[in-house]
Amino acid sequence: MNRDNATQIFDCLSSGVRLDIWRSLIKEGQSGKVAGELARELDIAPNSVSFHLKALLHANLVSVEQEGRFQRYRANIPKMNSLIDYLTEECCVNQDDESCDVQGQVCQ
């Protein structure tokens, strides 16, 4: 992960609809969902969901697999974990002690 990748992810998730889609897919894990399920769940027009899924695909935040005439989308959880690692890789490096507590999380 680098700054450009992180910026692309944040740019993509700055849309409330995309963030809602992402969170819905995270809940499903590897089961994923088809676009129609997402549209019904989020009460969004199917063509709008497809537009937002394309942006999530471009940012590599989701994967898609053809299932007959449907496409199943899954969250790219390793990509998000990579972003979290990137954001916290220098956590407390300027501290004198070996670890620090940031909002209840110990960084080392």
Descriptive overview:
Helix 2 (16-28) crosses helix 4 (46-58) and helix 3 (35-42) packs across helix 4. By secondary structure, this protein is an alpha+beta fold. The chain has helices at residues 3-13, 16-28, 35-42, 46-58, 77-88; strands spanning 33-34, 62-67, 70-75, 100-102, 105-107. The mean pLDDT is 91. The strands form 2 sheets. The protein has a 3-stranded antiparallel sheet.
Give the total of beta strands.
5
Shape, per Cα inertia axes = elongated
- Which sequence of strands runs across the widest sheet? 1-3-2
Task: Give the mean pLDDT.
Answer: 91
The percent range for strand residues is 15-25%
Helix content: 40-55%
The parts where pLDDT drops under 50 for at least 5 residues are none
SSE order in H/E notation?
Answer: HHEHHEEHEE
The number of helical segments is 5
Task: Write the topology of this structure.
Blueprint: H1 3-13, H2 16-28, E1 33-34, H3 35-42, H4 46-58, E2 62-67, E3 70-75, H5 77-88, E4 100-102, E5 105-107
Antiparallel strand pairs: 1-3, 2-3, 4-5
Helix pairs in contact: 2-4, 3-4
Write a brief caption for the model:
This protein is of the alpha+beta class and 108 residues long.
Keywords for this structure?
108 residues, 5 helices, alpha+beta, three-stranded antiparallel sheet, 5 strands
